[in-house]
From TrEMBL:
Coiled coil: 210-237
InterPro entries on file: HNH, HNH_nuc, NA-targeting_endonuclease
MF term (GO), any: nucleic acid binding
Species this protein is from: Neobacillus citreus
UniProt cross-references to CDD domains, sorted A to Z: HNHc
Start and end residues of each HNH nuclease domain: 109-158
Source species, domain of life: Bacteria
Name of the protein described by the UniProt record: HNH endonuclease
Length: 250
């Protein structure tokens, strides 16, 4: 039996397998200690810094996110794989292991960084900005990242809300002071834009109806296949019954 097998004063390190006094293991609070000794902890840290270990996320699974709040409390929640990949690609989070990412910025730090980048000015009207606007709205899959967030004044943010950026810029332009198009020009532009949108929507509807029709056809062909199969089974049963009758001699 090794020293310390049943003794709480000694512990075996999972990395170097040495049995050492418990003081050689870093505390995790509440009478718990790390499973590796302090020396091995340093080695692990070095390896992490060298980025020898580059984890990737497990595809298709739900990914846990750990984040620090502004008051330094840690919270965790789950997001989809696609969103996690997006967050990592945008430099908002780091992969810890195959189903855990760590968010690098808390809300307040992130907001301040955006404000500083945009000089505390609304990107839409250049007045002092106090809010953060998602360029692609959160509703439509836009994430809170440096490329999707801009400094915006309250008014612009409220008017933009869930309108796509191009539409917002187009319709919003006349409200700017520097705009010098007449109301007729503005209306005809708006009409053109709307008719283009309607055409787009009509095309999408066409595509969808075709898909729906095909799906119904698929369902029908499946039903026909099923019917054919059950017919075949019935025929086989009939043949077997006839054979049996012949054997028995009825
Ligand atoms: Zn060790
Ligand atoms: Zn503004």
């Amino acid at each position: 039996m090794e020293v310390g097998c049943y003794c709480k004063l000694y512990k075996t390190c999972v990395d170097c397998c040495r049995t050492l006094h418990y003081r050689n293991f870093k505390s995790r609070g509440k009478r718990k200690r790390r499973s590796f000794c302090k020396e091995c902890g340093l080695k692990r840290k070095e390896n992490l810094n060298k980025r020898v270990y580059r984890p990737t996320l497990k595809e298709g699974s739900e990914i846990k996110v750990k984040a620090k709040l502004s008051n330094k409390r840690t919270i965790s929640y789950k997001v989809s794989y696609d969103k996690a990949i997006h967050l990592v690609a945008e430099g908002m989070a780091e992969i810890i292991h195959d189903n855990l990412i760590y968010k690098l910025y808390d809300r307040v730090t992130f907001r301040n960084m955006i404000f500083e980048r945009d000089n505390y000015k609304c990107v839409y009207c250049a007045k002092p900005g106090t809010t953060i606007d998602h360029v692609i709205p959160y509703k439509f899959g836009g994430i809170t990242s440096f490329s999707n967030c801009v400094c915006s004044c309250r008014r612009c943010n409220q008017i933009k809300s869930d309108i796509p950026l191009e539409d917002f810029l187009f319709y919003y332009e006349p409200f700017k002071e520097k705009s010098n198009i007449t109301i007729e020009q503005y209306l005809s532009n708006a009409m053109n834009k709307l008719s283009e949108k309607i055409k787009e929507i009509e095309e999408v509807i066409k595509i969808y109806t075709v898909i729906i029709e095909r799906n119904e056809l698929n369902d029908l062909s499946k039903q026909i296949q099923n019917l054919e199969r059950s017919l075949l089974n019935l025929k086989l049963q009939l043949i077997w019954q006839k054979k049996n009758r012949r054997v028995i001699g009825i």
